[in-house]
Amino acid sequence: MRWLSLGILVASGVLLVAFWGDVPDRWITHWGPHGPDGWATKSFSAALAPLIIGLFTWLAFEVTAIWMAQRESKAELPPQMISVQVAVVRATGFAVSLLIAGITLALPFVHPRSPLPIVVTALVDLGLIVGGAMLWAARRTRRLRAAGAAIPEGYEGVFYRNPRDSRLWVPKVAGIGWTINFAHRFAWPMMIVLMGLPLAVVVLVGALAR
To answer: Which pTM value belongs to this model?
Structure first.
Protein backbone atom coordinates (compact mmCIF):
# COMPACT_ATOMS: atom_id res chain seq x y z
CA MET A 1 0.00 0.00 0.00
CA ARG A 2 2.82 2.41 0.79
CA TRP A 3 4.39 2.20 -2.66
CA LEU A 4 1.00 2.29 -4.38
CA SER A 5 0.31 5.65 -2.72
CA LEU A 6 3.67 7.01 -3.84
CA GLY A 7 3.20 5.51 -7.32
CA ILE A 8 -0.13 7.30 -7.79
CA LEU A 9 1.46 10.65 -6.99
CA VAL A 10 4.39 10.01 -9.32
CA ALA A 11 2.06 8.79 -12.09
CA SER A 12 -0.04 11.95 -11.91
CA GLY A 13 3.13 14.03 -12.21
CA VAL A 14 4.25 12.02 -15.24
CA LEU A 15 0.83 12.49 -16.89
CA LEU A 16 0.97 16.21 -16.20
CA VAL A 17 4.36 16.50 -17.87
CA ALA A 18 3.40 14.20 -20.77
CA PHE A 19 0.35 16.33 -21.62
CA TRP A 20 1.93 19.67 -20.76
CA GLY A 21 0.95 21.05 -24.13
CA ASP A 22 -2.73 20.71 -23.21
CA VAL A 23 -2.38 22.65 -19.97
CA PRO A 24 -4.07 26.07 -20.29
CA ASP A 25 -2.29 29.34 -19.59
CA ARG A 26 -4.49 29.88 -16.52
CA TRP A 27 -6.76 27.75 -14.35
CA ILE A 28 -8.84 28.11 -11.20
CA THR A 29 -7.28 26.97 -7.93
CA HIS A 30 -9.67 28.44 -5.35
CA TRP A 31 -13.31 29.39 -4.95
CA GLY A 32 -14.74 31.96 -2.56
CA PRO A 33 -18.31 32.67 -1.46
CA HIS A 34 -18.98 34.47 -4.74
CA GLY A 35 -17.14 32.19 -7.14
CA PRO A 36 -13.54 31.71 -8.29
CA ASP A 37 -11.08 34.01 -6.56
CA GLY A 38 -7.76 32.25 -7.12
CA TRP A 39 -5.95 31.27 -10.32
CA ALA A 40 -2.65 29.68 -11.30
CA THR A 41 -0.64 30.63 -14.34
CA LYS A 42 1.05 27.97 -16.43
CA SER A 43 4.31 26.93 -14.82
CA PHE A 44 5.73 23.69 -13.52
CA SER A 45 5.92 25.08 -10.01
CA ALA A 46 2.21 25.98 -9.98
CA ALA A 47 1.10 22.74 -11.62
CA LEU A 48 3.20 20.49 -9.42
CA ALA A 49 2.53 22.32 -6.14
CA PRO A 50 -0.30 19.94 -5.11
CA LEU A 51 2.01 16.98 -5.71
CA ILE A 52 4.69 18.47 -3.47
CA ILE A 53 2.07 18.74 -0.73
CA GLY A 54 0.98 15.19 -1.54
CA LEU A 55 4.52 13.84 -1.20
CA PHE A 56 4.99 15.45 2.21
CA THR A 57 1.58 14.13 3.28
CA TRP A 58 2.45 10.62 2.08
CA LEU A 59 5.75 10.84 3.96
CA ALA A 60 3.95 11.88 7.15
CA PHE A 61 1.60 8.90 6.97
CA GLU A 62 4.47 6.54 6.17
CA VAL A 63 6.63 7.79 9.03
CA THR A 64 3.66 7.34 11.36
CA ALA A 65 3.10 3.78 10.12
CA ILE A 66 6.77 2.87 10.51
CA TRP A 67 6.90 4.40 13.98
CA MET A 68 3.83 2.43 15.06
CA ALA A 69 5.27 -0.80 13.66
CA GLN A 70 8.53 -0.28 15.53
CA ARG A 71 6.70 0.13 18.85
CA GLU A 72 5.29 -3.41 18.78
CA SER A 73 7.47 -4.53 21.67
CA LYS A 74 6.36 -1.59 23.86
CA ALA A 75 2.64 -1.67 23.06
CA GLU A 76 0.01 -3.60 24.97
CA LEU A 77 -1.43 -4.99 21.74
CA PRO A 78 -0.19 -8.18 20.07
CA PRO A 79 1.87 -7.73 16.86
CA GLN A 80 -1.09 -8.81 14.68
CA MET A 81 -3.19 -5.96 16.05
CA ILE A 82 -0.42 -3.43 15.53
CA SER A 83 -0.27 -4.60 11.91
CA VAL A 84 -4.00 -3.95 11.59
CA GLN A 85 -3.62 -0.38 12.82
CA VAL A 86 -0.61 0.22 10.57
CA ALA A 87 -2.68 -0.99 7.61
CA VAL A 88 -5.42 1.52 8.45
CA VAL A 89 -2.87 4.35 8.60
CA ARG A 90 -1.48 3.39 5.20
CA ALA A 91 -4.99 3.02 3.74
CA THR A 92 -5.74 6.57 4.90
CA GLY A 93 -2.52 7.76 3.31
CA PHE A 94 -3.53 6.01 0.09
CA ALA A 95 -6.93 7.75 0.09
CA VAL A 96 -5.31 11.15 0.59
CA SER A 97 -2.68 10.48 -2.10
CA LEU A 98 -5.39 9.41 -4.55
CA LEU A 99 -7.36 12.57 -3.84
CA ILE A 100 -4.36 14.87 -4.26
CA ALA A 101 -3.30 13.14 -7.49
CA GLY A 102 -6.82 13.59 -8.84
CA ILE A 103 -6.92 17.28 -7.90
CA THR A 104 -3.51 17.80 -9.53
CA LEU A 105 -4.89 16.61 -12.87
CA ALA A 106 -8.47 17.87 -12.55
CA LEU A 107 -7.70 21.54 -11.93
CA PRO A 108 -5.74 22.22 -15.15
CA PHE A 109 -7.44 19.64 -17.39
CA VAL A 110 -11.09 19.36 -16.28
CA HIS A 111 -11.63 23.01 -15.24
CA PRO A 112 -14.32 22.42 -12.57
CA ARG A 113 -16.73 25.37 -12.40
CA SER A 114 -17.19 25.03 -8.65
CA PRO A 115 -15.57 23.19 -5.72
CA LEU A 116 -18.62 20.91 -5.42
CA PRO A 117 -17.21 18.08 -7.61
CA ILE A 118 -13.98 18.15 -5.62
CA VAL A 119 -15.82 18.08 -2.29
CA VAL A 120 -18.05 15.19 -3.42
CA THR A 121 -15.06 13.28 -4.77
CA ALA A 122 -13.17 13.81 -1.50
CA LEU A 123 -16.08 12.53 0.57
CA VAL A 124 -16.53 9.46 -1.65
CA ASP A 125 -12.79 8.75 -1.78
CA LEU A 126 -12.22 9.06 1.96
CA GLY A 127 -15.53 7.43 2.84
CA LEU A 128 -15.01 4.33 0.70
CA ILE A 129 -11.31 3.75 1.34
CA VAL A 130 -10.96 4.88 4.97
CA GLY A 131 -14.40 3.58 5.92
CA GLY A 132 -13.67 0.25 4.25
CA ALA A 133 -10.33 0.03 6.05
CA MET A 134 -11.98 0.66 9.41
CA LEU A 135 -14.63 -1.99 8.78
CA TRP A 136 -11.91 -4.44 7.76
CA ALA A 137 -9.94 -3.57 10.91
CA ALA A 138 -12.96 -4.23 13.13
CA ARG A 139 -13.62 -7.61 11.50
CA ARG A 140 -9.93 -8.53 11.68
CA THR A 141 -9.84 -7.60 15.37
CA ARG A 142 -12.81 -9.84 16.12
CA ARG A 143 -11.15 -12.74 14.30
CA LEU A 144 -7.88 -12.21 16.18
CA ARG A 145 -9.70 -12.09 19.53
CA ALA A 146 -11.66 -15.25 18.64
CA ALA A 147 -8.36 -16.94 17.77
CA GLY A 148 -7.02 -16.19 21.25
CA ALA A 149 -5.01 -13.01 20.67
CA ALA A 150 -4.55 -10.99 23.88
CA ILE A 151 -6.36 -7.84 22.75
CA PRO A 152 -7.50 -5.57 25.62
CA GLU A 153 -11.24 -5.34 26.06
CA GLY A 154 -12.94 -2.57 24.12
CA TYR A 155 -10.36 -2.08 21.39
CA GLU A 156 -11.93 -2.82 18.01
CA GLY A 157 -9.65 -1.99 15.13
CA VAL A 158 -8.93 1.72 15.47
CA PHE A 159 -11.84 2.44 17.82
CA TYR A 160 -12.43 1.89 21.51
CA ARG A 161 -15.90 0.87 22.68
CA ASN A 162 -16.42 -0.52 26.17
CA PRO A 163 -19.75 0.02 27.99
CA ARG A 164 -18.18 -1.17 31.24
CA ASP A 165 -15.56 1.58 31.14
CA SER A 166 -16.83 4.84 32.66
CA ARG A 167 -14.06 6.94 31.10
CA LEU A 168 -14.79 9.16 28.09
CA TRP A 169 -11.14 9.46 27.12
CA VAL A 170 -8.86 6.43 27.25
CA PRO A 171 -5.15 6.11 26.39
CA LYS A 172 -4.26 4.67 23.03
CA VAL A 173 -2.54 1.32 23.27
CA ALA A 174 -0.69 2.05 20.02
CA GLY A 175 0.51 5.52 19.20
CA ILE A 176 0.53 8.70 21.26
CA GLY A 177 -2.40 10.40 22.92
CA TRP A 178 -5.94 9.50 23.84
CA THR A 179 -9.01 8.19 22.09
CA ILE A 180 -12.74 8.38 22.79
CA ASN A 181 -14.71 5.55 24.36
CA PHE A 182 -17.56 5.34 21.83
CA ALA A 183 -19.74 3.50 24.33
CA HIS A 184 -19.82 6.58 26.59
CA ARG A 185 -23.00 8.66 26.44
CA PHE A 186 -21.00 11.83 25.74
CA ALA A 187 -18.90 10.27 22.95
CA TRP A 188 -20.90 11.53 19.98
CA PRO A 189 -21.60 14.98 21.46
CA MET A 190 -17.84 15.30 21.95
CA MET A 191 -17.21 14.21 18.35
CA ILE A 192 -19.70 16.82 17.11
CA VAL A 193 -17.91 19.51 19.13
CA LEU A 194 -14.47 18.43 17.89
CA MET A 195 -15.61 18.37 14.27
CA GLY A 196 -17.83 21.43 14.51
CA LEU A 197 -15.28 23.83 15.99
CA PRO A 198 -12.92 23.83 12.96
CA LEU A 199 -15.91 24.22 10.63
CA ALA A 200 -17.20 27.13 12.71
CA VAL A 201 -13.79 28.81 12.53
CA VAL A 202 -13.72 28.43 8.73
CA VAL A 203 -17.23 29.87 8.40
CA LEU A 204 -16.37 32.77 10.71
CA VAL A 205 -13.17 33.59 8.83
CA GLY A 206 -15.06 33.46 5.54
CA ALA A 207 -17.77 35.76 6.89
CA LEU A 208 -15.24 38.28 8.19
CA ALA A 209 -13.35 38.23 4.89
CA ARG A 210 -16.40 39.42 2.92
So the answer is: 0.82
